[in-house]
Amino acid sequence: MKKESLRLAYGQALVELGREDERIVVLEADLGKSTMSILFQEEYPDRYFEMGIAEANMAGTAAGLSLVGKIPFIHSFAVFASGRAYDQIRQSIALVGLNVKICGSSAGLSDFGDGATHQSIEDMALMRANPNMTVLVPVDAVETRKMVKAMVDWDGPVYIRINRNDLPVITDPDSDFEIGKLQVVRDGSDVAVFANGVMVSMALEAAEELAKDGISVKVINASTVKPLTDEEVLAHVEGCRGVVTAEEHSIIGGLGSAVASALRRKRDLPIEFVGVRDSFGTSALSYEELLNHYGLTADAIKDAVKVVLEG
Amino acid sequence: MISDERIKQLEDKARQLRLSVVEMIGVGPVGHLGGSCSCADIVTALYYYRMNFDPKDPRKPDRDRFLLSKGHAALVQYAALADLGFFPKEELRRVKVLGGMLQGHPDMNTPGIEANTGSLGQGLSIANGMALGLRLDGLTSKVFVVLGDGELAEGQVWEAAMASANFKLDNLLAFVDQNALQATGPIVERFDLNPIAPKWAAFGWHVIEIDGHNMREIVAAIDEADTVKGRPTVIIAKTVKGKGVSFAENNPAFHNGAMTAEQYEQARRELGAVEEGC
Ligand SMILES: Cc1ncc(C[n+]2csc(CCOP(=O)(O)OP(=O)(O)O)c2C)c(N)n1
Predict the structure, then answer these.
(1) ipTM for the whole complex
(2) Are B151 and B69 contacting, i.e. CB atoms less than 8 angstroms apart?
(3) Domains contained in chain A, CATH given
(4) By a Cβ cutoff of 8 Å, what residues of chain A touch chain B?
(5) Is the pLDDT of residue B278 over 50?
(6) Measured in angstroms, how far is the CA atom of residue B156 from the centroid of ligand 1?
């Protein structure tokens, strides 16, 4: 599968949308060359605000901008966008449901070299816990473009979690993206795997291999983590004998928790979580080796599928 | 007064630390070359001239503390710690290797590292806490902390700066590594937070401004700070990002950049690497 940069797609989408919608303003905290918000500055310098390395102030400023009718997009690494500015996001933005878009870039373990301080294993949990907040995790560059558009059309705060590294293109440019709707990327009947971000291609790989053993795995791209209705999740597990979730995030509070809570009344439906097991990150020389280290692999998904089938 | 010979030794040590930074990054992977080299002289003066510590007993209660609030410059601190014997030099070849001790940012599992830093803006608060606690215990240990100038945009720095003055922390010495660049480019163009010195002065600090690559000025400023009572001191050191490696000097691309094989060899040559073999 061809790999493409999600952050580049994100930056380009912002530029395109900024052309049509003058309400869009962009705030950055000295990571514009990583988040790719810098592309917006090149095109619309008047609507771009470099806020310095001051994430909390950036979030608060965005609240003010939205209160005068702008649609601010704020940027940093996911760990700082969600964590450093957490109280400003909670009190000034989410509490009021303000129309602020938060881009958490270099999310998960994707900033492999920088280590624990820069890797976000808890950002989905933090953002998801806020009432009014929408949480999105694009699977590829194609979906990223559609998502940025959906974020502009959505009235309310949205957090988007973007991988630093190029990822395989899985989705179709012609299909629709709708916030809150999950997409089946491979059909199957025995086990439903809900995955997002980098884990989707691994789930597909696992499904391919399990098919050889006669196990039919459905793979769902859970690119909306919130809002996620019970019905939306339940619809995808119909007829399945087990469920697996896979995320580049702590198993506490992220996609696994969201899916499990939607399935709370399904007593005979076993569920397994693939994710980071309550541990901070660490440095590595490559992304792949770090994903392996935390058990974020196709093999881990395969094992989890087998475990739920043994039920 | 410190002798010319001693100054020369310190200057040579700073050169060695820079060379070690370059060698830790190597060819291919990215590394924070710029910010490590800009504060190399300050780090040298602290570890090799001023601070009291015992590499064999790194948690000795009455030691001085060093915190790199701009944690991304960890490589230069690793170079000093290894050279001083806090851990074997072989570790320097395993920076950021999975399962290795030396992380991309300072981590307390490394002997000699006093705080986990890397999320900018937090070091001075931690230093304040240490200074308050050490004073309570009646210890004369001093806490040293190095901040980046881009880092000064973080509001927490100024909360901490107020607190240091409020608590009259004269057992605390802060440095601002004023290399005038943040990650994306020149501070004056990206987010102009100048003037810096009057801000610290207004917050109640004793301010000393120096050339951060002049070893004699660094040493003199550290000595001066030791005489200041009843308030904290900040040394604002004008520096050059990437100092000592010509292609990296003042070049934002080497904030966290990768070197080609040619650049790597050039950097080593410029830093006086002694060629082995032949
Ligand atoms: C809270 C936080 N936000 C953003 C970053 C990403 N980051 C790392 S270094 C850097 C620029 C630092 O500039 P400065 O403090 O001037 O350091 P120097 O130029 O000396 O390297 C940024 C934005 C971070 N580490 N922490």
Answers:
(1) 0.95
(2) yes
(3) 3-168 (3.40.50.970), 183-310 (3.40.50.920)
(4) 28, 30-33, 38, 50-54, 56-57, 79-80, 83-84, 113-118, 282-285, 289-290, 293
(5) no
(6) 14
Is the beta carbon of B149 within 6 A of some atom in ligand 1?
yes
Residues 6+ apart with CB under 8 A from A210: A216, A217, A302, A305
CA distance A175 to A195: 19
- Measured in angstroms, the CA of B98 and the nearest CA of chain A are apart by 4
pLDDT surpasses 80 at A141: yes
Please check whether residue B191 touches A, CB under 8 A: yes
Domains and CATH numbers, chain B: 4-270 (3.40.50.970)
| Tokens 């940093």, residue located | A76
Q: b/e string for B108-143 if b means 16 or more Cβ within 10 A?
A: eebbbbbbbbbbbbbbbbbbbebbbebbeeeeebbb
User: Residue B277 pLDDT > 60, yes or no?
Assistant: no
Residues of B in contact with A116 (CB under 8 A): 103, 105, 107, 116, 118
Paired residues of A72 in beta bridges: A25
In the annotation, is A55 catalytic? yes
Q: Which residues contact A176 (CB under 8 A, 6 or more apart)?
A: A146
Going by pLDDT thresholds of 50, 70 and 90, the confidence category of residue A95 is: very high
Given a cut of 70, whether residue B214 has pLDDT beyond it is: yes
pTM for this entry: 0.97
Q: How many A from CA of B184 to the centre of ligand 1?
A: 9
Q: What is the tens place of the pLDDT at every residue in A246-272?
A: 999 999 999 999 999 999 999 999 999
Of A129, A88, A131, A83, nearest in space to A104 by CA: A83
